[in-house]
UniProtKB/TrEMBL annotation:
Residues 3-223 form the ABC transporter domain. GO terms for biological process: transmembrane transport. It comes from Planomonospora parontospora. It holds the Pfam family ABC_tran. InterPro entries: AAA+_ATPase (IPR003593), ABC_transp_ATP-bind (IPR050319), ABC_transporter-like_ATP-bd (IPR003439), ABC_transporter-like_CS (IPR017871), P-loop_NTPase (IPR027417). Belongs to the ABC transporter superfamily. One of its GO terms (molecular function) is ATP binding. Keywords: ATP-binding, Nucleotide-binding, Transport. The keyword RNA-binding does not apply. The keyword Nucleotide-binding applies. This is Peptide ABC transporter ATP-binding protein.
Amino acid sequence: MALVVSGLDYGHPGGEPLYRDASFRVEAGTVVGVTGPSGSGKSTLGALLAGDLRPRAGEITVDGAPLPGRGFRPVQLIHQHPERAVNLKWRMRSVLRESHAVPRETLDLLGIRSEWLDRRPGELSGGELQRFCIARALHPATRYLVADEMTAMFDAITQARIWHALIGIVRERGLGMVVISHEPALLDRLCDERIPVERLRGPAGSARRSRWSPAARDAAGSA
Ligand SMILES: Nc1ncnc2c1ncn2[C@@H]1O[C@H](COP(=O)(O)OP(=O)(O)OP(=O)(O)O)[C@@H](O)[C@H]1O
C-alpha cells in the first residue's frame, strides 16, 4: 500500500519544466517531508499528488490504482491558504458537511469550538479556518494527506498541538502523509523520511539547478 509517483513530468503552461522523470513513493503509515527553496515546485507537487493538476507524463497511483480523475479524492490536500479551499459564502457547519459528518471527537482534538460552526470563513482567523480544512481532509475514505505549509499561520504552541493531534490520527488510521515545509526542525520531528524537491527534477533539471548556490546543489546531490 503506497502512493507511488513514477516518471512524473510537469511544468506550468508557459513555464520551465519543474519535474522530469520524477519517481518516489510514500508508504501507507509513513510521514514523508518535502523540502526545497521558495518557488522550487513544492506546492505544485502537492497539487499533482492530490489530482488538482495532471502530469504531462508519468503516473501517480494510490494503493495500486490510478489517481481518480473525478469523484472522491483519496489524496487530500491541506492548502497553505485555507481561504482558497472553502466556499466563503457558507457557514462552517456546511463547509464541514460537504466533506463528511466530522465526529465531535475530531473537532475537539483540533480545538474547533462549537460557536465557530455558525460562522462563515471570513469570520474566523486563518488558524481557526485551517482547523476546519484539516477536519474536512480527514474523510473516512482518505488514504493519504498532503499538508502544504499547513501550520504556517499558527503560533508555536498551537502548531505543536495541531500537529500532535493530526499525527495521532494519521498513525492510528495508518494513513500516509506528505509534509511540505520550510522548517527543518518541524520535518525532523514529524517525518520518517525527507525528500529534497531537487532530487525529483532529474538530470534535465540541472539547467535550473545551476542558478542555485553550490551548497544547495551539494545538499541536493547528496540526498
Ligand atoms: N498556476 C501557475 N501558472 C504558472 N506558473 C506557476 C503557477 N503556479 C506556480 N507557478 C510557478 O511554478 C514555480 C513553482 O511554484 P510552487 O508554488 O510550486 O513553488 P513552492 O516551492 O511551493 O514555493 P513556496 O515555497 O514559495 O510556496 C514558481 O516559479 C511559480 O511561479
